TrEMBL record, chain C:
InterPro entries: Asp/Glu-ADT_sf_sub_c (IPR036113), GatC (IPR003837). HAMAP family: GatC. Residues 69-98 are annotated as: Disordered. One of its GO terms (biological process) is translation. Keywords: ATP-binding, Ligase, Nucleotide-binding, Protein biosynthesis, Transferase. It comes from Candidatus Nanopelagicus limnae. Residues 70-86 have a biased composition (Polar residues). It is an enzyme of class 6 (ligase). It catalyses: L-aspartyl-tRNA(Asn) + L-glutamine + ATP + H2O = L-asparaginyl-tRNA(Asn) + L-glutamate + ADP + phosphate + 2 H(+); L-glutamyl-tRNA(Gln) + L-glutamine + ATP + H2O = L-glutaminyl-tRNA(Gln) + L-glutamate + ADP + phosphate + H(+). This is Aspartyl/glutamyl-tRNA(Asn/Gln) amidotransferase subunit C. Heterotrimer of A, B and C subunits.
Amino acid sequence: MSIRDNAWQMAAALSKNEISAVELANQHYEQIAAVDKDVHAFLYLDKEGALSQAKEVDIKRAAGEKLSPLAGVPLALKDVMTQKDVPTTCGSKILENWRPPYDSTVVTKLKDAGVIILGKTNMDEFAMGSSTENSAYGPTHNPWDLTRIPGGSGGGSSASLAAFEAPLAIGTDTGGSIRQPAAVTGTVGVKPTYGGVSRYGLVAFSSSLDQAGPCARTVLDAALLHQVIAGFDPKDSTSINQAVPDVVAAAKKLDIKGMKIGVVKQLSGDGYQKGVENKFNEAIAELVKLGAEIIEVSCPNFEYALAAYYLIAPSECSSNLARFDSIRFGLRVGDDGVKSAEEVMNLTRQAGFGREVKRRIILGTYALSSGYYDAYYGSAQKVRTLIKQDFDNAFTKCDVLVSPTAPTTAFKIGEKSNDPLAMYLNDIATIPVNMAGIGGMSLPCGLADEDNLPVGFQIMSPAMKDDRMYLVGGALEAALLSKWGKPILDFAPKLAGSK
Amino acid sequence: MTLNYDSALAIYEPTLGLEVHVELNTKSKMFCGCATEFGAQPNTQTCPVCLGLPGSLPVVNKRAIESSILIGLALNCSIAPFSRFARKNYFYPDMPKNFQTSQYDEPICVNGFLDVDVETDEGNKTFRVEIERVHMEEDTGKSLHVGGATGRIHGADHSLLDYNRAGIPLVEIVTKIVPNTGKYAPLVARAYVATLRDILRSLKVSDVKMEQGSLRCDVNLSLSKIGSGKLGTRSETKNVNSLRSVERAVAGEIIRHANRLESGEKIVQETRHFLEESGETRPGRSKEQAEDYRYFPEPDLVPVVPDAKWIEELRTLLPEKPADRRKRLQTAWAVPDKEMNAMVNAELLDTVEQTVLLGADPTKARSWWLGEISRIANDKAVSPTDLMSVNDVAQIIELISKGELTDKLARQVVEGVIAKEGSPSEVIAKRGLKVVSDDSQLMKAIEEAIAAAPETAEKVRGGNIPAAGALIGAVMKLTGGQADAAKVRELLLKHLGQ
Amino acid sequence: MAAISRDEVANLARLARISMSDAELDHLAGEMDVILGAVARVQEVAGADVPPTSHPLAVNNVTREDVVTPSLTPEQALSGAPASSEQRFKVPQILGEE
């Protein structure tokens, strides 16, 4: 048993009593103690809570109780999910020290399944960003190269996997915040169909786009975690009341003979790094070898997706973030007994929100304001219709669509932080999935020749057909593993102090 | 010169608009399962959803939707085949999310009307008030302003917030402009709110208690010069919280507008507050810049798409219209207008009807509820129905009609029931209040009375029937009031050969 | 011509309840101009014949029954409040009007 094992291997070792959940959690805390000073994946470690949870699992196992498949396996939770009495900051100063009085539904499901929540991971403030540089608590570093970004907004979750600080993590994906970090850290990340996983307790950035999902080092691990967190939740009106597709069986199937796989023409070319395109094409060649049929499809409206996204998401966030007003929770600034509630509110929001968050609140306030609504928010909603239509058309011809997850590999910390538009381009390939509410997965497909950094391969499946991306992902992963001879993370340089 | 009400209306024609907010009486809130009890301890009926805590999400209360549709149907509205919630974005400390989940351009019900009767110089006249929309939204919390002398917002040094009320379902009913009411504008406004209140009460969707704020009215008013055909600028008077205030607010605004216009001043489109003491309005704090509510469809909720079957099911639940019911009951019970109005005003129509349905005589039921019981309730400052159940009253009336109780005894039974001595039969047993109907027992008392006043008995024997009164009184006294006076009279006269 | 003026940004900051310095407003006005220039592209394809999509789900009528569920305790409700008093959330004086 090693912390480099996959989650399903850890689960097997636990069930055979080769290791206890407490020991397994402690091994991960040791790794965190050794490497997190450099990686900074975690914002908070709930060692006490995790170990008592682990102990409970061990007791139940010893008593012969039937346990969920992932019982006792540790997990890192993105700090955007509420966990009762555990600080939840969303990477923002405005929520510093806030301890929610309730569990998110995802956390409830994790706890019920006996998954051990090690702590909360770093993120771009309120999930706005693609590099985790927008965290009020400092950036997370990519374990492949500590001078580079781990992607965002869920950089902490993906970095924790790549640094072997946790075998599983929870992310949230509004425009690519699970998939792009997975791509640049050589890990797997899945954005389920919108409504597949409850948003209750997910601190909203953009309600019509946000979706929580599993992050792991393998497709099967992601599927096992998906199975735990997915399903209808009566507390979320936008949760889908249907059976969750059998993603675990799909991940294990490995047979994609005859499947029709569409390559989206618009998600390549200009702006895509050469090494990214090469690795993507090599992966396509593997799919052909596995017997899949490759079809080129055109989604002409995808070129407007980024623009529409940067209207819809800011619009919704300008409203979602209004509740951070210094009254019921969180930061209060400037309450000197003289200033009015309104002044204190203004000062708190000024001090508590970072630059990117304020930029998006102002942008969204503009897009919704009278006189501009139709031209901006209204037009963006129409683009959303067109993107959905593009997907609908494409899915009449193929079972899944594929593309590179991100146009480039991990860039240097600080490289794009003063150019919002350049930063937004990171999400160009991931955003259409959120706009249409369908499923998307990123898995590693190799290292780019020019920088030896991981490249992500994106698989998109129709709404509520999440099993398809697990099927294709599992098969591709197996083919690449046998081609490489070892998991991609074994190519990464060893972190100082790491086991 | 200053215009009074009559001189103002000689020059100007008022146009009304009314917005009524109704708190629904659902058990739980609009978007969460918190209770809605009035008067609970502060912040005991809150949860992550109605506190707007980060991560929480709303789920719509089905009964709130059904109540809204019922209201729409009762107001002759079309029920929208597709309706959505929208966020109304503005900051206010008593609003937890800093947006109100409301409905904007896709309300649940549209285009209805309500006919209201007003007593005019030419007799009763019906005015049709057209309804523009009925939409669903949520209530805000309550703030307590501390440190100021008056408890008002100005001068307070801080405020304390209780979110128990936040998220209670509200329905807003908005009229179209109501033209051509002339001098009856205040009466039409009052009659509209009163009629609406009756309908809402009959639908059992709200407590409609204006004094508790479960029904609140905003009055919009503008004046135009008679014959000009041009609508004037309107003012909006908020939170007018009694029927009388509605009437006074309209009249007051007519006078205020007219005097401003006459002196050449402009009417400012603004929100005003009604002052209960003076009947006048004062301006709200003017905002330097207009609010921009940035409405957009609420992404945390899905559309409300009532199908025909659901609507028709709800339609079958519609009760008889209050006005029709009143007419029907008045005819059936043969009650004069005045007494019918008394029953309605005392809010005892339902109670009397229920008592009658249990077999009681309508006249008796009415007189007990509006008489003795109301009198005691008044003294105790409670409602008559808090004191007695319809079952108790029906039982007492039945005993009277069977001759087992006299009115006098019945009053004692009522007293006993109110004093919580038990059911009417228990009170009768405990207090020994049975009518003495045993002839031999009565005869004994009659003979005793005659023996005590032989001269009176002689007069009666001699044909002086009215003289029997004194003897009957004596018998009643001897039986402790438990005898039926009519029966005593019959036996007495027979005994004395009459 | 700039798509958005500094004064407009100041008004948006007021609507959004964020106090901003002059320098910040200037900087943001510049950035907003660039971003709005880029996102305005949506207008190119947003024809009158295209219906808007505000939500990816095509689901209607999701409701809950009118049943009371337990609330938080007042202690829990107030646990995150920056200030409280008399079991209520305490805020500085409110200038606005209901």
